Amino acid sequence: MLKIFKIVALLEGVSYLALFTNMLAVKPTNPVLYKTLLFPIGMAHGVLFVSYIILAIMLKFEQNWDWKKFGIICLGSLIPFGTFYVDKKYLQNV
What we know:
This protein has helices at about 1-30, 30-60, 65-75, 80-90.
């Protein structure tokens, strides 16, 4: 299950960055393309975010993570590049 979590974390981080790119780079230059891309990227990110949190909860008990580690891992999904940091710092040695 940890391997699945790492894949979901990577995809969630990429989708988060895709949302930011869409908002910061595409919206000012091409509003029509922005609106076209917003729903599919947003939906994918939403599904991946929920999956990330559910898998983190399941792994908290499976891997016996303490609450601090679990909190940092969950917080990583809210910060840009956070999932990449979590993977490098907390999931690389597991």
